[in-house]
Every structure is written in C-alpha cells, then in structure tokens.
Batch of 4 targets.
Target 1
Amino acid sequence: MPSLFRKKRLILVLVSFILLVALIGFSLRERSELTWPEKFVHDSVGWIQTIFNQPVQLIQGTYANIQDISSTYEQNEILKSRLSQYKSIMQENQLLKKENEELRSSLDYQESLSEYDPIDASVIARSSERWFSQMIVNRGEAHGVERNMAVITGEGMIGKVQSTDKFHSTVQLLSGFGLSNRISAWVWQDDDPIHGLIQGYDEESKSLLLKEIDSDAEINEGERVVSSGKGGVFPAGLLIGEVTKVEMDQYGLTQTAYVKPAADLYDINQVMIVDRSMPTHNIDEIDEEEEE
Amino acid sequence: MIQRFYLPLILLFLLVFQGMAMSLLPGNLAYSDYLITPHWVLVILILITIFFDHDDTYYSLLYALTFGILIDMVYTSILGVYMFSYGIVIYLVHGLKKMLHGNFIVAVLLAALGIVLTELMLFTIYSFVQVTDIPWESFLSIRLVPTIIANMIFFLLVYPLLKGRLEKWAANILSS
C-alpha cells in the first residue's frame, strides 16, 4: 500500500493527532464549568433520553409491581411486627429533636452541618464507556444543582455531581473516585468518631480506601463510615459504607481501611442530590474574618 | 429528500440508546466483571462505509467525526478520544474497502478489525491519561474479547436489516 503513505495523508494524520492532544489537554484541566457546546449537547441528548425513558420506566414499574404483589403477604407480616417498635422510636426521636432544638437555640447555633435539602432526580442514562463511572440525571442548574454536591440513594451515598448543565447533570459514582476526589469521613464508634479521608477506589476489592487514619486508632470490621461534613459541600452523617479490612500503611504512620459502599452502585433509578442547608461559603468567610 | 436524514437519525438514536441500555439492563448483566462496552454507533458506521459510501465519497468519515465527539461529550469527560479513534478506524476501513468486494465475509472481517482497532486505541489513549491502569493481559481478557463478541452479535443482528436499505439509499442519494 504505497498510496497510504502519501504526503497529504501523513500531514492529515499528524494534524488530527495534534488536535487530539490539544482536546485531551483542554478537557483534563480542572474545569469548574463546561463550555456551552457541551452543555447544549448534554441537554439535547438528555431530553431525547427522557422521552425514550418514559415508556420503558412504565414497563419496568409494572413488572416490579407484579413482583411486589406476590411477596406482599410475607412483607406485611414482618412490617406489622416492626410497626410497634417504630412508634416508640418515633416518640423518642421527636423528644430528642425538640431537646436538640432547644439546646441549639440556647447556644445560638442555628444551622447544623447535617441538615440538607434533597433534590429528587431520576437516572436517565449511564456512560457506555465502562472506564468512566458516570451517569446522567434529569436535574440541573435550573433546579439548584451545583458542582460537587453529594448524591445519595435510600441506602447511602453513591457519588457526587461532576458537572452541571442547565437541565441535566453528570454524577461521578464512588467507583470512579480518584485521588483528586476526597471525602472527609468518620468511622462511627460509640464514644468517639475516628477521622479519615476517602481517597480513591480499589477495583479489585470493590471498596473505597479510607486513608490518613491515626495509627493507634482501633477499627473493627463492620463499623460504619459516614461523611463528616468537614471540608467541601457534603452534609455530615451521610452513610458511605462499612469497613471490611484494615491495613497499616507502608511506614506504619497511618492506617488504611477498605470501605464497602453501602448503596448498590449498579441498579440505580432514583437518586437524591443533597444540598447542604448551611452555605459553604460561610465557612470561608468566617475563616477570613478570624485571620483578620 | 427525507432519506438524507435517515442515517444521522439512526446514529443519534443508537448513541442515545447506548447509554440508556447501560442503566436499563439489569445490573448483574450489564455490570458483570467483564467490561463490555457497546460500540453500536461504530458498527453502523462500518456498515455505512461498506454499503453506502462510494470510493470517492466520505459520508461515513464525516459521521464518524461528528458522532465520535458527541460520544466524548455525553459519556466521557475527556474530549477527542472517541472522535480520533472512530475517525482513524473509519478512514482505514474506507481505504481497505476499495480493494475488496462488499460481501458478507468482508463485512464481518472489516467490522471485527474495526472494533479491535478502536478498542486498542481507546485503551492506549486512556492508559496514557490514566483513566485506566489495568495491565495489558487483563485488558485482553476482561474487556477486549467480551466487547468484540458482544458487538459482533449486534453486527449480525443489524446486517440483514440495513444492508439492502443502505444500498438503496446510496443509489437514491449519491447518484442524484
């Protein structure tokens, strides 16, 4: 094939290669916002997906309903037995809430880190490229979604908002978390929570890595890991997962815990995007004031 | 000439459906340990190259670049990778097609070659920018082979549906 190596083609290939490198370089920068063509494409594709999703959701919903009906009797029995328990817990809960509010008001400490306003969203598509753990949800800037907000399901946290468009946004799942996506987290223990940072995801064990734990902290398997609300925009108290394994790091200075995500990262239909009630920028302002 | 819009519409539909399939299929099927990646758009592009394009028309290349960058935008956060891979592969297939007859065996071989080349290029580029860090051997067994099998099944499904139509549209559009 001598014709393949003609000059014109060589130049064409070189130019496209340069273009590729330029485009990759452009998208690897830390971008706080997408360019308008990207937003436009995301939203247009999102609308089409929403339209096609309607009938499919209907069929899926009916199927799930039929399945539910067949197991209704058993579930009903179990639920009845739990109902009485819940009543007493609810009363206790209300009492505690009231007490908490009173204490807060006496302390002049109105908003807490654990309060949040959820934005309900449904998943309309996932990335077809398996090396990107992303999904597209049908809520965007117009509904108050912002970058870096936490995304949860009923079972626990599943990820954070990676980028937003006008009416849709892209969610980065926990399984795609790299070193640059850190979550400040606590290992929940009765007396004193142990602090650590979620950094990265281990493909092999399908667990998140909780690093920077004090070397003398005692962590047991099965203990729960929740977000601490310190740093970033996540509210406190979101369940992330359970500890499955603890390891001393290379130099024996810190420990690393393997955390299995509590939520199923694959079968997701409905999610909540979590908007912390306490504004994030307040913290910075307070810091600045103190520095002055 | 409404027929002109059939091809872009089919491609757009598959692009949209590629992502929806991943969320609609049951989790244990779509998310087994094998990283099966749908390349439906690419399969159709290869069919277009073989049965629609003449030797001197480059519709398939134009569509490859357009829908490549659309996939980049919608499903990945790094632009240009799919555009480059699809573009190069379709250009190669277009060049090879000139030397071969457009029959079933040739189409199967070119489709398989196209998918393999695309996967290799995606793996190389994504390894460079550290989107993935799996070693070459596990890439071969958990991603490349399952992806080829899955996409060739799709190819065999759409081949009888599209072959005749593409040739008809080509006769109508390109000769007018």
Target 2
Amino acid sequence: MRPDREVAIVAFAQSDHRRRTDDLSEVEMVMPVLHEVLRQTGLKTSDIGFTCSGSSDYLAGRAFSFTMALDGVGAWPPISESHVETDGAWALYEAWVKLLTGEADTALVYSYGKSSPGSVRDVLTRQLDPYYLAPLWPDSVALAALQAQALLDSGTTDEPALAAIAARSREDAAENPHAQLRGARPQGGYVVRPLRTGDCPPIGDGAAAVILAAGDRARELCARPAWIRGMDHRIEAHSLGVRDLTDSPSTRLAAERAGAFDAPVDTAELHAPFTSQEVVLRRALDLDDSVRVNPSGGVLAANPVMAAGLIRLGEAAARIHRGDSDRALAHATSGPCLQQNLVAVLEGENRA
Amino acid sequence: MKATPPPEILQAPLVVEFPFTRSLGPVQSAFLTGLRERTVLGVRTETGEILVPPVEYDPATAAELRDLVEVGVTGTVTTWAWNPEPRRGQPLATPFAWVLVRLDGADTAVLHALDAPGPEAVRTGLRVRIRWAAERSGAITDIACFEPYDSDPVVEHRPHDGLFADSVTGIVAPARLDYTYSPGAAQTRYLRGLAERRTVGERCPSCTKVYVPPRGACPTCGIATTDRVEVGPAGTVTTFCIVNIKAKNADIDVPYVYAHIALDGAGLALHGRIGGIPYDQVRMGLRVEPVWSEDGRYPDHYRPTGEPDADYDTYKELL
C-alpha cells in the first residue's frame, strides 16, 4: 500500500567514524552533521517542521545526553521535537509518520553513538530480558555467535563464505571516506567461536543526519529526492530460544509491508553488524547477486551504534541522489540476533 | 580569547551501578522458585507447545499462559558458541560454551553456559544436564551452568501446580557498567579554567549570549560557541531555595540554601550553594563570590561580598 503523501529523503550527512572521540562531547560530534544537511538543502533551523533523534544514554553512560545534543539543533525557544531510545532509523520512521499526517512538511532526523567511553559488548546486555538473560551477561558477540553456529549447522553458510562477506564489505569501504575500516584485513582469531574478529563490526563513535521533505518541497530542496515508497518495522518473539535464528520472518514481513517485493531493487543497504546476519537478511529479502549489497561497506566497516541503521537509509538515499540507484532497499535492526527489523523502499524519479 | 583545542583531554573513571528490583508475574515466580527447588517448569501454549523458560503470554498469539508442566533437567544443545575469554558477570570464570539447550520435554531452548574442556568437546546435539548452584535463591543463576551428560532424551513432562513454600515474588538484578568519561572540548576548557580559579564562559557568535558553564553549543542558534569570556568572580543571586532534607552522603548540615547565581558577564545563571550567611537571610539580588574548594579546583560554595544588593532590573532577564 503506497502512503497517501509523498515523502523523500532530501539530504544525508555522516561523521567520519572513529574508534574514539575523546576530544568531543556528543553535541560537538553531532553539530557538524546537522549543519551539513542544513547546508545541502539551504534550510535554516527555523524552517524545520519536526525534529526527531535516536540515541541511548547507556552507551556513553551519560544520563539525558540527548537533551544536551538537542542544543546543537537550536531547540530553544521550544521546537516540535521527539526522541527514540534506539537507532535513528526508528526516529526517521517517526518523522515519516509525522509528515504523512500533514502536520509538518520538513523533518530533521539525527542520531549518534559514542561506544568508546564504555564496553559496548557489555552495555548491550542491559537491553536483554532482565529475568532470564541479563543476569548471565551474554554479550552481543556471544549472541550473534550462537546465531552464526545455527547457520553453519543448517548448512546455509560456512566460514569461507562469512570471510568473503567481511572482505567484500571492507574493500567496498575503501571508497567510503567516512568508514572506520577501509580496505580488507585479516579475519583474525575467534572472538566468540565461530565468529572471528573479521566477522564482527568495529567499535566506534559517530553521528548521522537526514532531512525529510514532502511533495514539491522535496523537489525544491533536492535535484533527485529519494522517495520513501514504503516503510515498516516488525519484531521477533522475545525469547531467543523460541526463534529460528537462521531466519528473519520479521524482516520479510516488514519488507512485504514496505512493498519491497513489488519490483526488483538494484541496491540494498543492510544493517548486518555480523557477517552471518547478512546471510540471514539476504535470504529473508530474496536478494540475489544482481543486487548491489552495502556498497558503502555497511556496518562491518563503521558501526556507530544508534546511528548505524539511520546511515543505511542515508546511504541508500544518497545513492539515489547521485543517480547510482533507481530503487533501493534500506534495512535497520535493533536488539540481539536481528530482534527488530525496519525496511524502507526508496525510489528516484525517472530521469529524462 | 579565541576557543582553542584543550592541550590534553580530561578523563575520569565513571561507574554506573544500580540494583534493579523487579517483581515477577505468576509464571516467572513459579519458574524461578522451581529452580531454587531444583525443579524446571515450562508453560503449555494453546497449541500444546511447551515453552521453557516459560513466559506469561504466548509469543505468537498473546494468549495468557498459566498451564505449568515440569520438564527434565537433561537436554540437548541446539546451538553453541565457544567463549574463550569470559567477561565479568558471566556464569563461569574459565572458558566455556554459550549454549541454547532444549530440555527434555520442552519445545524451546534456554540460554546458559556449558562447562566443557574445550570447543572440540561441544557440538550441536550434545546431551547435557543442569549443574545446580550450591546456593540458590530463585534466579536464573540457580542454574550454575550445564555440563555434558550422556543420557537418552525423554519427551515426558507432567503437570505441575507451580506451588512452592515461600515462593519468590521478585528479583534484585545488580548491574554495573564502567566508563571512561571525557567531557568534550568546551567543558574541558571550562574545567581547566576553574582549576586556575577562573570562570570562563563561551559566547555564541550569533546571539552573543555567554554560556556558563559552556557545553559547546548555543541552544538557541544551534551553533558552536566560540569566543571565551571570563566572567565573575562575583555574581548575583537570582533565585534560591532552602533545602531542609539532607541528601544521602552529603556532609552539609540542613537547612542550607541552594541558589541560581548570575556571575557578572554571564548570559545565564549557574547553580551553587550559599554559605557564610544564615539561611533565612539569603535573598534575591544578594551579591556573592566563590569560595574555592581546598584543592582549589572548583567553587565549593558562594558567600556574600558585602556589596549592596543588585537592583532587580539588572538580573530580571536571567531568572
């Protein structure tokens, strides 16, 4: 079902993702990308109808850090604004819905994550079921490794195939000046077997921002807007032991609802923090070798947690802006082993 | 003064620690109490599936689930991952396998650790049994871990009423996360100024407001503050309150006064305690100056300067 109102991503910016940003507070890290999307569109802060951000205070251990980051958008006197405590892809979803209601014509969406001050593997255990899982402190790599072993056991993939995903991602990232890992590197030893260092995303800090606009406003602001033809997000059952970890029915359902299967896509930006998760997503989304997957290098090349999903939407949109894609799929995930999944379908209008 | 990068980044350890106290529903209570009694309970769905660990609502249909059954303490590994370097809080301190185990009689798997000599001793399909913790309290950690155990799988389960003496109704889940805090460029500059007993704000290049303490951005204009501006040392109490309840661990006698203080030259007020004057004599417009802490790194509190009170019109925009 096509949405009633045409809404497009008209600008995208991201920071240069780095292992550490000790020299910057969150707002100091976010401000340059906010200014960049405003510059791209020529908009001023006061022109923005709705602002929505995504972040998590647990990452850097700073209570209410998102209110500090709001300083960077010029939020005083008060603006129409919201925040999600998850990846910025879901902030984009909220902003999209806001524009579909007609209450705003433009929206600024941004997100950021500083994983460097803490230990992100341990921090992410705090998002788990507090009764049965969190007391065991199963870290994010361990949970992904359980999923990877299930895939190996099922014969769906093997270690060389995973290594090939790792190598392709980082080789593609060589062309991405914002990526943290640019160029192929050794797979290394097991972090948690069967996942090797190369199968895991880098740990780092970064930020991203996009601007959404509706209808003719989008055409004014961008030469080739990336129209959001559909977007949906779905979640798996709560308990890992209930799920078939080799499949992602929530991704498939979200893709169906977003219209992803109505016509072929030429590009897919997949939020797969671990190589094994790309295998799951490709199968769930029926992506064959004709689809260019993660030309940016994906999350295996830069993983600013809480911004990494929004960056998938931004990278897919930027490819449409540049004319490198006509119809792209963007995916974002949240939670352990692809717990929650968002799929958006973006299109450029036909070129004359 | 132009804002310049700090000579070196300030950093400090930051520990966030909190004991979450969580109440349990009837199914979780029976399951965790059962673990204390070395009994594993599951819950039956409307389609007859046995979920272990049990949940209170069906993950597929959202139906309320209350039909408890007892399952085995032996089971089969459905997937595993070898953890060569155990991390703080994890079930075992020596290298172990994370496992999902489908207990005999159950249709779903429980996550836990498997004590095994090495990855070569672990495989999907391995038969295992629960090793109970010596001291049990009604928590998932009452299962110390799993251990390899050769036995034939049985699929039997039997009804259980879920009733135990002294059933647990809640858990306390302690959590600790360690961080290295770094305050960023603007706040580093501010803290370094304080260490020299100077209060240095930063000015917005657009609206010219001087922020004290600076946080790096002007929240009105959404741009970086640039010029550094020394303010104070004296200032004016713009508003205040009298604190009558002692904060935990605070070594200040109540009542005391906590105030908003607009330092001379600042575009907004900061917070501080007022001392050196009886609490009931503090007033709006009172002129105060900082009293530095013993190590001289920050103002411990503010005391009256003895100047005449400031006129209301001089600080009414800073309330």
Target 3
Amino acid sequence: MSEARFKLLVAPPAIVSSAILVLLFIVLLYYSLPAIREYGLGLLASPTWKPVEGAPGEYGLLIPLAGTLVSAVIAVLLAMPLALASVVFTEEILPRGLHRWREAFVSMIDVMTGLPTIVYGLWGAAVLAPLLGDTLYKWLHSSLSFIPLFSCQPTTGNTILTAGVLLAIMITPFIYAVVRESYRQIPRTYKEAALSLGTTRYEYVRIMMGMAKPAILAGALIGFGRAAGETVAVALVVGNTFNMPSCLLAPSYTVSSLIANQFANAQLYPLMLNVLVSGGLILLLIGIASNILGIMYLRRVRYVA
Amino acid sequence: MPDWRRVKDRLFTAATVALALLAVAPLFHILATVVVRGGSVILRGGVSFFTDPPAYPGSGELGGVGPALLGTLWLGLVTSLIGVPLALLTAIYIVEYREGRLARVARVFTSSLLEVPTVLIGMLVFLVVVVPMGRYSLAAGSIALAIVMLPYTVSYVERALEGVPRTYREAGYSIGMTRAQVVFQVVMGIASRGVAAGILIGVAKVLSETAPLLFTIGSARGSYPTGPQSLLEPGDALPLLIFQFAQTPYSNWQDLAWGAALLLTLIILAIFTLLRLLFREVKL
C-alpha cells in the first residue's frame, strides 16, 4: 500500500472523529436558537416551567441549573477529603512492605470508576436515599433547622443533598486518579528535603499537598464536570421536582435529569425540545470549560528537581 | 505535657485511614446489595430470567430480561463494528501524522468527547438519526454508543502506539517496508496488547452506559432482536431496563431491575478481570 493510499485510509476516520464534537456543538446550537430567541435571558433566569400543548409554554431553566450547580458543588466538597485521604493512605501511610494491600486498594478504586452509573443509581434510590432520609435528614432538620439549608421538613430521601452525596461517591475515584498521578511525580529530592527537617507525617503531607495544589484544583474541576453531567444516577435520587435547591433536604431537579425525564416526549410541546437542547448546550459548555481549566491547572504542575 | 506535634500526627493518620476506608466502603455495600437482591431474583427466575420477557407489571410473575440481555449483546457487537475501526484508524492517524494540524485537532477533539455528558450524545443521535428515520432503533443506539466508545479507545490505542520504540519503525523502513506495512505489521503487532486493552475498555464503558440509550433505542420490552434486520427496530438493553424499572412502583419489575443490575455488574467485572489478567497496569 502506497503512502498516499495509506493516508486515504486513515485520514477520513480522523476527520469523522474530529467532526463529532463540532457536529454536536452545531446541532445543539441550532436547536437551541428558537428557544433563545423566544425566551432570551429568561431561559436562564426564570424559575417557571409550564408546558402547554399546541402553544409555546413558559420555560425557564433556573431551577435545574441551580440544582446542577448545588449538587455538583456538594459532590466536590464531600469527595475531596475522601480522595485526598485515599491518596495519602496509598502513598504515605500503607507501609512499603504492604505492596499487595496498596494494589488491592487501588483496584477497588478502579472498580468504582468502572462500575455502571446505573448501578450506583439503583443503589442510591433503594438504599442510600431511604437511609439518609430516615436518619441524617431527620437529625439535620431537628437540630440544625435554624440554618436555612436544613430548614425544610424532609419528606423523602430523594433530595438534592442525596444527589450530591451519591455524586460524591461516584467522582471520588476520578479526583483520586488526578491527584495521585501528580502526587507521585513530586521529585524525590523534595520529599527527602522535607523529611530531613524532621517533619511528622502530618507536617510532611501538608508540604506535599501544597506542592500538588494545582492538581487538587484540577481534580476538583474535573470532578465538578463529571458530577454536572451525570444523568441517570441523579435522575433516580434527586426527586425530579421544580423546587429551588435553597434547602438541601427538599427534592429538586438538575439539567441532566430534566433532560432524561422530559426529552423523549418534548416534541409534543412546542419549543420544549428547544429549551431542553439549550440546557444540554449549557451542560456541554460546563463540561468543556471545567475540563480546559482543569488541564490548565495540571500544566502548572511542573516540578523542577 | 503531651507532645502536640505527635498527637496531631496520630490524629491525622487515624482520620486519613478512616476517610480512605470510607471512600471505598460504598463499593462493598453496593456489591453486597446487588449480589444479595439480584442473586435471589436470578435464583428465583432460573433460566427463564435470562430468556423470558418481563412479566406483566404488578402481576405475581417475574418473567425475565431476555430481550434486554440480547439487546445489550447486539449493541455491544454493532457498536464495536462501528467504533473499533473508527477509533483504531483515528489513533493511527494521530500517531503517524502527529506533527500535522489534523492530527492535533483529532487528538484534542476526540479526547474532549470524554468530558461531554453522555446524555448529550443521546440527544445528538436522537436529533440527527432517530428523527429523520422516524423511529427508535438499536442501530441508532449503536451509533450513540460508538461515539461514547471513541475517546476511550482512541486515547488508549494512541498511547500504546506511541509506546512502541522508534527503533522498530526504523528497522521496518530500513528493509524497505512502506508506512502501511510498518504500521499494520510492526507497530500494531508490538502494541497489540495495548490495542486490545483499549478495545476492551471501550466495550466495558459502552455496555454500562444508560444515558445515550434513553432517546435512541426505544424500549421494546417484548421483542427479541434476532438478526441484523432487528437493528432497524426498537430494542431494549440492560441498563435502560434497570433505569426504567427502578422508577416503577411494581415489585416484580423492581426485582427484575436488581437481577439485571447483578447481570450487568458481572459482565463489567468479567471484562475488568480479563483486563487485569492480560495487562498489569490498566486504568478504567
């Protein structure tokens, strides 16, 4: 096969692969335009969701957008300590001799990454949500209800907080992978320098984590992007109710769970499909932006030994 | 007087170990729940769990997940037929012409697909395939899943091909091989394990995806996709069945969801174990 024919074989697939992202962006933008034209900024700022058959209803994405942000922020806040502790556990606390233990722990984290999200969702809906609803939420409400976030009476376990907790469990392995990779690249000389000062493990880890800070931020951003885009697991536990997530113990909506629930039938209502696609476009932008920012932070991790 | 530095250190170590164990604890609870609840359902259903369609909702009968299981297998096969060649050739282009503009664009754009929420890929395929065709189909689902597979397999294969030492290529060229021969006979041969890992990871990802199927395959619970002609018909898949049955109030359908969850988990863990046996360091 000549060079030219070889290129003719491999170039078209490369073009097709590259075109998918472009096509996705163009199609989402194209279908969003009617909604943007009709509702303008109200699309982002209005909390109303009133579908009407045969005429354009009133649609605003404020509640699902807020739900997406709140649940993803909760997820990152909860997942970060777990992920960092896991990094310290595998890299610093497990003695060198216990190689098999370290491998086993890393394998578990890997399995968590690969476990189907729908399995997390099923478990979240059947086990986690009732558990949190019967214990933690009752307690939060009875003892901390002076904090607005916990002021509403929890009725079921399907709440925005449950979505955040489930997402935290799901994104911990991703944050762990990003931070661990970078943590392991810290040059030996730095580690030895810190240890030579007679640091305790706590002091030593603080110094090391300081050096890995850009990677931690990158992990937070990448985890946030994952959490914001997760669909089916969230749809099973978030409660799917148009409810501002100002109180964490109430059901709410996220953009992805709204799409999951309404998109298939959206064609019955004028403009609803377009509104949902514009929500998808926002998710796309959040996903890409958090990833680009994350990669930028990761590039800053350059240890000069 | 206690040594505060030591006390702090002890507390820190204890808290770290506790948090690390807490991070993986859900995995055990999830696996235990799926095995216990799903296992009892599969034992109750016996062979018919794997072969029968779901029973009427709310009836005392259980039925099975036959059509969904068959649909998942078809989706895996057709997705691989579309996605694997596309991913392999794209990865080869990226590595062979790495200096070129298209190669750089292809690398960035395909890896960015990793960050696209998969529900949007379902949305895209709904708008450009399902609507023009006028119906849901397994083929549409396979196209969506092939897009999901692409970034995983491309990045893995790309790394495997990059890892082949330059000397082997040079040896190939020095005996007068063309670029095609070097790529397909030398480089792919040496990188075959990495290539296989990339394909297996892509397949594992695709089989466990739900969101791309929501608006693409429909949910034809009762019909069995028996041959290629069924690909243009609506179908079902295990993850989709779990998602929809988990939301119903019918206990027999919820039982099927748990059984299907165990089945799906076992399929994924089997692929994962295979990867571990074949290759040392694998990241899912």
Target 4
Amino acid sequence: MTLSAAERERYSRHLLLPEIGAAGQERLKAARVLVVGAGGLGSPASLYLAAAGVGTLGIVDHDRVDLSNLQRQLLFDTTSVGAGKAVSAQARLQALNNEINVVAHAVELRAANALELLGGYDCIVDGSDRLDTRYLVNDACVLLGRPLVSAAIHRFEGQAMTYLPGQGPCYRCLFPESAAGVAPNCAEAGVLGVLPGMMGALQATEAIKLLLNIGAPLVGRLMTYDALAMEWHEFRFRRREDCAVCGVAPTITTLADSAASCAADVPARWPRVNAGELRQLLGAAGSGPQAAPTIVDVREVHEFQAGHLDGSVNIPLGDLSRRVGELPTQAPVVFVCRSGRRSQTACELSARAGVQRVADLEGGLLAWAATVDSSIKVA
Amino acid sequence: MNTVRVPSPLRDYTAGVGKINAKGTTVSEILTDIERKHQGMRFRMIDEQDRIRPHIRIFINQREVQSLGEAVAPRDEIHLICALSGG
C-alpha cells in the first residue's frame, strides 16, 4: 500500500523516524483498528490513531452524546449533544484525516455480535465504561487471537495493559472475575477530565507499536497512573494456568452476556418503588402506625456525604455482605443508590442473606431529585 | 512500618488519602493493621475464606502476592490494586 504525495506530507514527521519510515507508515495505512467506546478513553485514542494514519478505524458505541461528556470526551463539541456517538465520532475523525476510512458501528457490543465485529479488525483498543464489556472484549480477543490494548479510569487513577495472543496474560489473568455492580463507573464516581487523555494517548501509543512491531508492549505489565500524586507504577503479572479463558483448560469457549450487562434492558428482578411511592411510604409512616421502611443508601461514603435522604443509613454496596446483619429481616427495607443499578444488586445480596422484604428505588436518587425534591444533591 | 498505596475506589476508607502506613511482617499482618486503622477496608479486598477477591490484586513492590502469608520486608511498599471500570 503505497503513500500518495499528500500522505507523504501529512505523515512526514513519522517518515523521519527510522522506527516507522515509509514502510511503517504503509503498514499503518493497511491496518484495521477497532476502538470500543467513544468516551473518555476512546476520544484521545481514536483521534491519535486517525491522525497517525491507521487506514481503517472502527468506532463502536451505541450511546448518544450527553452534555456531561464534553468535560473529557474530546471527539465531541457542544453541537454534538444528542447525536449518536459513533456517527458523530466518525465525522470528527474523518474531518481530521480524510485519507483514512472511519467506520461507525452504532450498536451495543454484546456476546451475539462481538466475535463478528472484533474479528474484522487487526487490533482492539478497549475504552469501554463497564466491567462487563471489558470482560466480553477480553474474552473475544482471546478467542479470536486478536491483540488488545485495555485501559480503565476512576476519579484520578488510570490503569492500562496489553494482551498479545500466545505471548502473555490476558485481562482475566489479572482480574479473574468482574466486580460489576459493586464498582462505580465514571458517572457514579466522577473522573478528572484530563485523566482519560493520558490513558487514551497511552493506548494509541501501544496500538501503533503493536501494528509496527516496535518497542516493548505492556504485555504482562500493568501500568497505573495516579494523577494526584503524579506517579506511574508498573507491576508484573503472569498468565494464570487456571485462567477461565486463556488457561490450559479454559471454561469460557464461547461468549455470553453477563447477567449484569443484561440488567439495563430486562425488567428489574426485585420489587421497585418509584420516587413518588417512596415519598408516600415515608409520609404515611410519619402520620400513622405503619412502620417506616428502613432506607439503606448503598452508595460510597463520599456520595452519601454530598447529599442523602433524611433518615437513610449508609452501607456502601461493597460492605453490605459484611454488614447485612444490621438490617431487619422481617420489616421492609428499601435500598437506594444514584441510578438504581447498585440498589438492585443490594436487593439480591440481602435477600440471599435472609432479608425478606426488600425493594429498591427505581431510577435512584436521580429520579428522586427529578420528581420529588430537586434540592437533594446527588454526587 | 510499611507504606501502603491505596487505590482510588478504596480511598473512602482512608479519608481520601492514597498513601498510608501499616506494620506487619506478612501481607496478612499488614492487612490486619490496615483494618484496625480503617475499619471495613480489609473486607473489600479479602473474602470470608481469606482469599484475595478476584477484582483485587496486591503487589509487594512490583511482585504479585499469591498468598496472604507472604513475607513483607521493612522497606517493602505494598500496592493495593482494584479493577477499574470507567472509560
């Protein structure tokens, strides 16, 4: 795949590097990279990959641009709000580099489509915002034999690693099982806007190195970044022989959606009350003999401290199985969280531990703030 | 006394502090001392069977801890790593 005169000028700084040169640039032009998630990580990663001249760049994201995305997702601007992310990203990247082919996949990555989607690319960059998707992408890459550059962020902290088929451990070797439902994502925990810029740029660097077969990739190495301390650390980890997907006797041989990843589009498993009903429950209890439900807020401590329902007690979801004995087993308990995701997990955990009358607040405190009391501060 | 690096998702237990001190000659003793100072934190990392939870890794300097009985030298730095989900 030869370079045109325009491409030679565009990539002239790459052509000067002996590690890249014309042959390397032609390799980038022939390469196909898929970026999973056009979010905080996917934005800088895809912008740099497009600018670098990766010939075919796929973007998979089924979400729409929200105003709160613009603090860190540099693919988008104010005029993008409300537009589909994949198509909006495609337009931005194509405008940045009209020499490449940008493909928009405006679909949700699921077990049913992951192998076909990822199988069409040489290298996968994971910038997804959910642990379940991280495991799905990892497992698909192992099954397909595709390299994976993975990164994740939380508040001021980032981490990154690279998987090369047959040459090192996978993401599941590092973290064998998902903590989905317990670990808050960016929407729930907050994130420094600049942070994904650092980590996404690192992912683009790794992908380019893999495509060019230069340098030392982050294989078997976890890189962590603490923006507050301004420190990078590197940790060595090995392939697990008992890894469920890349070990010697894998138990994951086909892809499956996790229960949690399905939670968004199937009916809630546990009884729910909406914000108006919860207000009535609390109000009725105050004026009559009916016992008020115990309101348990399962968000993290800092979220609770920012604002919470009067009379609610804070038991972070990660502490719940240890502290479930504090809950009444016969009287009603209503779990609340930010959006209604963690509270469903809390219902499951406490019901298994013998708490009989569990329910949660549908839509979480965001729904309470929208329909009952806008003065509550939801972190 | 050893330095322990606390991952962002567990800093609610340390009042937001990312670097704490703990004493012990094994990983288990270090975790016990952490629990004494920051109640509830150990349970977020270690399950009822004393196994490291699957979304948590513990490193002594750069080396991954396989068992809570592993020895910790006086100047070793302990890194607690938690799987992050954000993107």
